[in-house]
Amino acid sequence: MYYSLIRFIKMIRKEMMVFKNRGTLTQFQILAEIAEPKSNIHQKDIAKKLGISVQAVSENIKNLVDEGYVETSGGHGDYRITMKGIEKVKNDVLGLKTYVDEVLEIMNTYKSVWPAIAQENLKKGDEVGLRMDGGILYATTQKTSAYATVLNSVRKGEDVALTGLDGLIELEPGNVVIIKLPTMDQGGSRACDLNNIRRICEEKDYNRIGIMGTVSRAVVKKLGIKSDFEFATPQVTVEAAKMGLNVLVFTVGKMAGTITRRLDNEEIKYVVEDVRK
Length: 277
Known about the structure:
This protein is an alpha/beta fold. It contains 9 helices and 11 strands. The protein folds into 3 domains: 2-109, Arc Repressor Mutant, subunit A (Orthogonal Bundle), CATH 1.10.10.10; 114-167, no CATH class; 176-274, Rossmann fold.
């Protein structure tokens, strides 16, 4: 699914180059209006239909005439699209069609199939309940507030494809504890109260442990703690907490602020522990 989203973004960037700016899109719309088989067309009618000013229509038509896409005999409403203009509209429409087709293709599959782990043997067509545990989505024969339909028969513990997701998956955000370590100027790992850190680690069952900075790496090594992530730590911390996981994060000095700001924006609870001696 992540791959599909990246492909979607790249495709948008490529296909929307058909209209590099709003003015180009407006010219396309005006050309399309002029191309309609009418005895005459007035600028005020185009302006009303496109939701722009008559002045904007006038300026764009002048540019289209200068570029050879439209010709006029001088009379009001006497505009005709040229062969060059017709080719431009065709090319732009083809570009748009490609864009729209790919968007629809991706949207038809994006999250229409949900992966989960089967808690029991499941058969194709079963209606199952959904629950989140430890950041993992499980499909169960028990009734829950969210439910979906099984697409393929699977055994317990296997990944299962689900469709028709409905209801609300009950999920409480996890809690985050941020251990704020001394900077190198403050003494680094040698200035930490290691016993206090051990106490914090033992107080709660943390689902994920992250580190941020060299001092953090040195501290967890001293304490024999295995970290789960050390890159994009603020982002991973927030996403893990949103999935209901309790997260412990080791940071250094002001680095803690990069995490707390994100947590505040998502209204996720956290505690900052200063562990200097």
